[in-house]
Automatic annotation (TrEMBL):
<dbReference type="InterPro" id="IPR021866">
    <property type="entry name" value="SpoIIAA-like"/>
</dbReference>
<dbReference type="InterPro" id="IPR036513">
    <property type="entry name" value="STAS_dom_sf"/>
</dbReference>
<dbReference type="Pfam" id="PF11964">
    <property type="entry name" value="SpoIIAA-like"/>
</dbReference>
<protein>
    <submittedName>
        <fullName>STAS/SEC14 domain-containing protein</fullName>
    </submittedName>
</protein>
<dbReference type="InterPro" id="IPR038396">
    <property type="entry name" value="SpoIIAA-like_sf"/>
</dbReference>
Length: 120
């Protein structure tokens, strides 16, 4: 399940993901939020939190994530990934250089630091 974080400025899309994330989560929550933010701003920031009860991504979700990233390649100003899932943190760090914006990984304990960094 994915839900929007509502306490952020409108140039920042924040989502919290728990349980199993599937393509429907991307298609009904994240993609519409990204599209709405991009109608107002040329570049946006994203805070993506995987909660402690995150279980994984379906293949469809991973495909939608890749398509979303590539479709808006120059739109990403900053991306904060908040997770305690080691493979997600490591993959994010490994591929961060492919994105034109800044990417930083935070633990779930550092959620407030991630919110400050993404808004700075």
């Amino acid at each position: 399940m994915m839900r929007l974080l509502t306490n952020l400025p409108d140039h920042i899309v924040g989502v919290s993901a728990s349980g199993q994330i599937d393509a429907k989560d991307y298609e009904t929550v994240l993609i519409p939020a990204i599209d709405a933010a991009l109608r107002k701003h040329k570049r946006i920031r994203v805070l993506y939190q995987l909660t402690t009860d995150f279980e994984g991504f379906t293949t469809g979700a991973m495909w939608d994530d890749a398509k979303l990233g590539l479709a808006h390649l120059l739109a990403w100003e900053r991306i904060a990934v908040v997770t305690d899932v080691h493979w997600v943190a490591n993959a994010t760090r490994m591929f961060a250089f492919l994105l034109p914006g800044l990417v930083k990984v935070f633990s779930n304990e550092e959620q407030s630091d991630a919110e400050k960094w993404i808004a700075a």
